[in-house]
């Protein structure tokens, strides 16, 4: 009896093992759909392409509201769904988007844009001058909370509708970098009628005019967009759909690229850059331009004193941050983050600070804090490099007597807090947003707390230098103005600049068309997703 | 002493003692034993393999892994020991009240206990952390809340049993101090299940604290904790494997030892439970 029982059990177990192995073998790849053709009218390319491009992104968008900057990962999605009048293209030059052409009047204040005849929104309606006017005004609307609201509010006077496809944008004064403002991924043109009928809530009801239409958002997991067949660039987009898979953990993201679950990933961590460059089958695209820095809430307390901030600038172990958070890949910034040559900069402030904890301690004493003080550093658990930068800074501050506690919420919360100025010291990684020294306006101008500025920082000299730089059109004079600005900003140190870091994307070799734009523009690389496809 | 003899004969007990005694020693004297300052960074020497100065190598900040291990056990121990003590006290009080008073009060208490038991531990811990922040203090509270039900049930069943005994009723009606009578009759009954439950709770609590620190919700940087070290080390598996292996190994050993201790105590103190497993 027992013998038979044992044999039965054994055979059942063996049978189940066989069945399970057979089933898992037929399973196929997890994740990506296989190419079931849907007869997409878009591309005329003769290479066989997969229908779906799968992108592993590092963070769940804090919001899909296009006029709010919530990080580079979100911009990849934003630039697929929304476009503005003009944008930096894959060749790092400004090209037309919704606009067909533009002229600038002799007074340098009136920009006349002609909108493409075939430019449409995803709901089928034509893009008109009314929509452009509405969008410009929406950028200024405080309830929308556009990240670059104050920059536009400084210069924009009004918009005039000339005819259905012609609009005039009139500035208060000449503004040298105004075209750059319009190239920002946040300077989108949205549909007036759509916003009016959807309570102006584009986060809940995304609808734009970009190469892809919003399809679904499974919060925290994935966002799907589908090709817009009436996109104004013929033959674009290349892929029928894009699936953005939200994978906050850098190691998991890199592994998902290795297994083929995704075709392209953003924010490749330093150790993965080295590893993927060695492995065959993958390409890593690197731009060095973003920099890590500290922002301060300058309203009250020790951080409102420039001497204290300067002390911190001397105390931070910049090389330590590079060694730890970036595996030794990066360059320390002891001055102001400007590449030599940008707007005529010759490098004179590059050695303004140095690593000098003793000097830092004496500055603290001068400021009235011989025994240091306690403070909180806001960072995020989502990006290891942010977290590790915070921990090294914490250690650096401890050496000069400042007791810092590190706060590590997820990225969405961190963005929300930065928008409200809800922090004491905050770790940031940023790139400056536009290819002109006027990027400094968004960062250093006084005003309400916003993502890129040190909350409540306000200095008359900085404000007037910023304004002068904007309205002056002569490049020689602008070089001088921005040199003065750099010195003033370094003196007051509303920011402590730490290091340049690499911004890397990695893709499977079968992925074509994606370009990591150079320098500051790396954050605009999402525009090349319209060219990106996976070869089959 | 009879019990002690039985303990020494039990293999599981002996093994866990071998592990736990050095562990307790480390908890008490860890910082003095550490060869280096667990917080001292030396970023140029990050993720180094073992050397004479750094016996277990260094982490991504160049800090000594061995020193951090020796110090990192303290938060786990604090959370689990204090949390268990909290659960023990509150569980005992609630259980005795529920059992003695009975009626609606007893029902309410026991249903609340059931609710807490149904909660997945990690989920409850994450809720508490989201509302009141991370850190050792809040985790101790979480552990105390999560494990109160186990102690409540033990105390409750014993109290019920004892309350109905004749001699207890007699003693109370004659005028003896109720509390004294109850405690004299209840405690001998629940001593063994309590001891077993305490050791099981401690091992579960260590695991919970490590899990939460691994997720970044427990001990905050720069203070080390074994779970947190494992979480950080995960990013560097390809660069320095031992960084992950050391804390994982010690954590597993500790949990194994406390678990086995619980088993051994159950074997010795309540052998009839053995068959039901």
| Percentage of residues assigned to helices of chain A | 25-40%
Q: Tell me the overall shape of chain A.
A: globular
Number of H/I helices of chain A? 16
* SSE-based structural type of chain A: alpha+beta
Structural class of chain B: mainly alpha
Order of helices and strands of chain B: HHHHHHHHHHH
How many angstroms does the end-to-end distance of chain A come to?
A: 59 Å
Distinct helical segment count of chain B: 11
Task: Tell me the Rg of chain A in angstroms.
Answer: 26 Å
**Strand elements of chain A, count:** 19
In CATH, the homologous superfamily of the largest domain in chain A goes by the name Dipeptide-binding Protein, Domain 3
Detailed description of the structure:
The complex is a heterodimer of chains A (536) and B (277). Chain A has 536 residues and is α+β, with helices and mostly antiparallel strands. Chain A is built from 16 helices and 19 strands. The longest helix of chain A has 25 residues, at 2-26. The model of chain A is unreliable at 24-45 (pLDDT under 50). In chain B, α2 crosses α3 (65-101) and α8 packs parallel to α9 (226-233). Chain B has a single domain, classed as Orthogonal Bundle (MetI-like fold). The mean pLDDT of chain B is 85. Chain B is elongated. By secondary structure, chain B is mostly helical. Classes of the chains: A alpha+beta (536), B mainly alpha (277). At the A-B interface, α10 and α12 of A face loops of B.
